[in-house]
Amino acid sequence: MAIQREPGQKGINWSNIAVGAIMNMVTTLGQPLEVLKTQMAANRSQTLLEATKSVWGRGGVAGLYQGLIPWAWIEASTKGGVLLFTASEVETAGVGMGVSPATAGLLGGMSGGIAQAYATMGFTTCMKTVEITRHKEAAVGVQRSTFQVFMDIYRREGIRGINKGVNAVAVRQCTNWGSRMGFARLAETTIRNVRGKGENDKLGAMDKILASSIGGALATWNQPIEVVRVEMQSMAKTTANANRPAKLTIFNTLGFIYKENGIKGLYRGVTPRIGLGIWQTICMVSFADYLKAWVKKN
Fold first, then answer.
1. Which residues lie below 8 Å from residue 15, measured CB to CB, with a gap of 6+?
2. Once rounded to an integer, what is the mean pLDDT over residues 279-289?
């Protein structure tokens, strides 16, 4: 069942900003999967085992959490608030207009994904990538601070450089959360039908988690967009390639990756991303539904 207003509720539900910030902070427990996904997308010849060894070699357990503090936490809290607030309002409006829960979830997720990308993710994603780049450079003997890497980008490319790849991020987040929320709500409807429940009957916790897991796993169909985003934001000196376009766009980057690595290259990192997608969808759909209901009641 899609998100519904409680009886007597009028106007905008601002509490969803706090709920989204809190729940998206919880999703950062999956940071090792985020790091592995990015490592494989940036180094498309590596297997999952090779990527794990490479990340582990950059600092053991700490290497699996690189970029977490403070940038992943800052990004998670800000984008989580924007995502859930926007998605909930659009989803509720959609249900009010009579559209199906799955369609309302799709539209809510797409709107929330686009809003969070342009409102918060350009700078914070850049800073996470700076941290990963700095660690990769340190592994080959190049020592630079986070600020030095950041200022090098700013001097070369200005504000556009800081927000490089933000359009790819917006496409990714739009398809990410549209798919995750849409598939999750569709799965919830299917589970209700199988169990003989009505639209207004509550699902059990395990059924909610199962629906979110299905949504999170199916949403990884857009992995090529993630690989394109990583390539566009890659700042390591070792990424120089004679065939790499000087000015990257979504489409010429997609073409470059396909020519270099084929279809497999476009789906590098999809395995850890499936795990990450399931975890994030459980947090931002199932757990968030429960937290929103608790906030409304209290």
1. 292, 295, 296
2. 94
> For residues 104 and 159, which has the higher predicted lDDT (pLDDT)?
104
| CB-based contacts of 185, cutoff 8 Å, min separation 6 | 1, 2, 101, 102, 104, 105, 106, 211, 215
Question: Which residue type occupies 43?
Answer: N
- Contact present, 225 and 168 (Cβ < 8 Å): yes
pLDDT digits (tens, 9 = 90+) for 227-239: 888 888 775 444 5
For residues 270, 83, 290, 183, the Cα torsion angle rounded to the nearest 10 degrees is -50
Peptide bond into 70 cis (omega under 30): yes
Measured CA to CA, the distance from residue 23 to residue 284 in angstroms comes to 6
The pair of structure tokens assigned to 227 is 């690989």
Name the residue among 197, 194, 228, 190 with its Cα closest to residue 101.
190
**Two structure tokens written together for 31:** 């940071």
The amino acid at residue 262 is G
Asked if 120 and 163 count as a contact pair (C-beta separation under 8 A), the reply is no
3-state secondary structure of 244: coil
Helix (H) or strand (E) holding 123: helix 122-139
User: Residue 17: is it exposed, middle or buried by C-beta count within 10 angstroms (0-12/13-18/19+)?
Assistant: buried
Q: Reduced to 3 states, what is the DSSP secondary structure of residue 49?
A: helix
Q: How far apart are CA 94 and CA 293, in angstroms?
A: 19
d(CA 181, CA 105): 5
Distance (Å, rounded) from C-alpha 23 to C-alpha 287? 8
Structure tokens that stand for 211 in this block: 């629906």
Residues ≥6 apart with Cβ < 8 Å to 68: 28, 31
Residues in the chain: 298
In Å, the largest CA–CA distance within the chain is 63
Rounded to two decimals, what is the model's pTM?
0.75
**264/250 Cα distance (integer angstroms):** 18
